[in-house]
Amino acid sequence: MTTLIRGGHIITASDDYIGDILIEGEVVKQIGTNLDVLADKVIDASGKLVIPGSIDPHTHMELPFGGTYSSDDFKTGTIAAAHGGTTTIVDFAVQGKGQTLQEGLDTWHAKANGKCAIDYGFHLICTDFGDDDAPLLHKIMDEEGVSSFKLFMAYPGVFLMDDATIYRVMKAAGPKGGITMIHAENGIVINEIIKETLAEGNTAPRYHALSRPPAAEAEGVHRAIAMSELAKAPVYIVHVSCSEALDEIKAARDKGLPVYGETCTQYLTLDVSCYDEEGFDGFAGAKYVMTPPIRSSSNHQPLWNGLKNGSLELVSTDHCPFFLKGQKELGRGDFTKIPNGGPGVEPRLAVVYDGAMKHGFSLNKWVELTSTAAAKRFGMYPRKGTIAIGSDADIVVFDPEKPVTWGTEREHMNTDYSLFEGMQTKGDVETVLLRGKVIIEDGQYLGTPGEGQFLKRGATAS
Ligand code: URP
Ligand code: ZN
Ligand code: ZN
């Protein structure tokens, strides 16, 4: 099967030109202008942007949390991702309590196998890592293609790991080209603030945000960076939400330390006033209960600046949806029982496009933030994250002018609300190809769940 994408405005992280792309089978075969070739299918991309398939390196499909599971499984979540122009996700496998690292990974393979609409890889959340476990981690890297490991400083009694464990994982992963990802919030102190908050009778969703102040996130980031310096290993800070945390990353990078960070669509666009949203019997703010919480809008510009100047290297989603009815509701009367997370895997590419254009980013930088940087950081480049001869033909044809109104009516994620209900942006996904096959056209999913392949990833970028 051959496909010709004709006359599009081709954008990669480094290139910007009008051209044609010939795809043969699953890969890009030829790139040029006015290619004189016959193809089985021709896509007219004139007036459109043609970009590498988007990569979301932070999703949680079917994550057990707070007595329930995130509501997208690997089928529904990856179809929704495809609608939004994402052709690869890296989801977080969890080493359950009492499980080995390998067993955690096997559990996630069983969840995802045969279900995915797009390609996928796994990071591994470590919940137990002893003095002698480095060889097990190295085996996971060498044989399983999993080269990134997440540890939590938050959620005591569930995911929280002590500093010694974090340091051990850093020391094990770093020298082999692996990277440690940190959920950086001081969960121990946050728990004290939560106790005080509840004792004062404050149980509504807005107290989730008030009990997790920016200083708790900044402290976690500072400590993670110090440990990475001590371990002489790189660290990647996930879901950076505020300028205080960003400042710690910037200071470390200015010293030349291998410290990297991501932010998420919601931290660039939503405001803490969302927790006071009316409706659902005074509980609508639960939609936005995620960790870290949504901050004040004064953080938006610093986060965009951080993306522009390289302090932050990409935008992910932390996609972790729950239904408001029946799931978030578990926390009515006690905000600590609201499952943490929100739906985001679908709107990211277009919402970031809109924001990036408004903040004066180049098209190249938009592609870097939503695709290329993740491919490089997490060992998938150049198979993923670019349009080049021999690369997987994961390609999005994007209409830069089309207006979008976000909301449940147009979104496909398996939940009953949208984080961005009513928000208007410019620029929309038109056609999506996964390894040469059109899987989204005119808003319709044309693929077959299960054709998404597991990606064995290599070492992290240095
Ligand atoms: O609220 C969130 N972020 N839920 C998912 C788990 C995590 O901390 O990434
Ligand atoms: Zn996290
Ligand atoms: Zn997460």
Would you mind describing this structure in some detail?
- With 462 residues, this protein is of the alpha/beta class.
- The chain folds into two domains: 2-51 and 388-413 and 421-445, Roll (Urease, subunit C, domain 1); 53-377, TIM Barrel, CATH 3.20.20.140.
- The protein is built from twelve helices and 19 strands.
- The strands form three sheets. Strands 1, 2, 3, 4, 5, 16, 17, 18 and 19 form a nine-stranded mixed beta sheet that branches. Strands 6-9-10-11-12-13-14-15 form an eight-stranded parallel beta sheet. Strands 7-8 form a two-stranded antiparallel ribbon.
- Helix 3 packs across helix 4 (163-173), helix 4 (163-173) crosses helix 7 (214-231) and helix 11 (348-358) crosses helix 12.
- The radius of gyration is 21 Å and the shape is globular.
- The mean pLDDT is 98.
- The structure holds N-(aminocarbonyl)-beta-alanine and zinc ion (2 copies).
- The site of one zinc ion has 4 residues, from loops.
Distance between the termini: 37 Å
According to CATH, what is the class of the largest domain?
Alpha Beta
**Helix amount, in percent?**
25-40%
Mean pLDDT: 98
Secondary structure layout:
Blueprint: E1 2-11, E2 16-24, E3 27-32, E4 41-44, E5 49-52, E6 54-59, E7 64-65, E8 68-69, H1 74-83, E9 86-94, H2 101-112, E10 119-125, H3 134-144, E11 148-152, H4 163-173, E12 179-183, H5 187-199, H6 206-210, H7 214-231, E13 235-237, H8 243-254, E14 259-264, H9 265-269, H10 300-309, E15 314-316, H11 348-358, H12 363-377, E16 395-405, E17 424-434, E18 437-441, E19 444-445
Parallel strand pairs: 1-4, 1-5, 6-9, 9-10, 10-11, 11-12, 12-13, 13-14, 14-15
Antiparallel strand pairs: 1-2, 2-3, 5-16, 7-8, 16-17, 17-18, 18-19
The structure holds N-(aminocarbonyl)-beta-alanine and zinc ion (ZN) (2 copies).
One zinc ion binds next to loops.
